[in-house]
Model the fold of this input.
Amino acid sequence: MELEARLKALMLRGLDGDAAAYRELLSQLSRMLRGYFARRLHVEAEVEDLVQDCLLAVHTRRATYDRAQPFTAWAHAVARYKLIDHYRRQRVRVHVPVEEAAELLFADPRDATAAPDLARMLDVLPERQRRLVMDVKIEGLSLAEAGARGGLSPGAAKVSLHRAMKLLTARARDLED
Amino acid sequence: MKTDDLIDRLSADLPPTPSAAIPARLIAAAGFGALAALVLVVAWLRVRPDISEAAAGAFFWVKAAYTAALGVAGFLAIERLARPAGSPRRGLVLAVLAVAALAAPAAWQLFAAEAAGRAQMWLGGSWTVCPRNILVLSLPMLALTLWFVRGLAPTRLALAGAAAGLFSGGVAATVYGLHCPEHTAAFVATWYTLGVLLTVALGALAGPRVLRW
Done:
């Protein structure tokens, strides 16, 4: 089963009171969140605090999840809100760009269960965009480095990557239906 | 605490979550808000003495339908905005349609009226107090709604506050119709709308301060 569909199924069972499914959801989510925050914060203690803060928010506010919507989009919105709130409390002025929910979906690419999904999902992308997603999101290269590999300027790489992530989010949604 | 321990603890006690919890609580907030506004009308403003004759006429109900539509628009918007990444689109569309549906005949009525009677038609006898009264009547419900939404997960706080204001303002304005004797579309389209907008503005100001989680 695809990652999004699997997470959503776990969430739905959790909402109905299935503790084992819910536990599995939270541990998988904690790995995704760790990847998501680690890429953006670089201070390990802060990352773990935010992961816990998010898990707690996901738990206490789980009634706000609309069962008709993708789970990843909901969890991503919670994580992004907590990230922005973290910056605000630290009084750091950082612009958190509008990003696609796929950012969270692929935040834990070393997760063996996510890898087949990832490969299949990336199939929809043209070769150049696929390369770019792999370089930036998985290998952790900067946009400039990844762009240089493919002969793109940093600006062009940014636009291309954004399009790719958008496509992947749409694809995750399709697969779920 | 270690993250794994946290996960253990969170999944240890897991009562089922009802899927309609948010709409149900918002409707309860509207019930409470309407009741609080009614108490204020009865004790402070007084119910209009000709209420039974007025309720036999059509415009009494047009007025109520207009303000209720604004309240429903606010409900639709806050029901989404109380959730992460929620969109207010449906509520916004309904609010715009409701305003347009009343503003068009109001403009026509003014246009068709004798020049001498226009000011009276537009300002009635209570334009100086109408928006303020609606704002005051909406406060109990606005406070309750914001408190409730704070326990949910809004991510656009000013917008969520504004939607809570539209919800509360619409309900309060509907109850205000029990007191207010004004009977022209131009009056309602202007001063009732302004009263609801005051509540919307207050909600938008309060949102970023009180809705953080």
Q: What stands out?
A: Chain A touches chain B through 34 residues (CB under 8 Å). Chain A has one domain: 3-176.
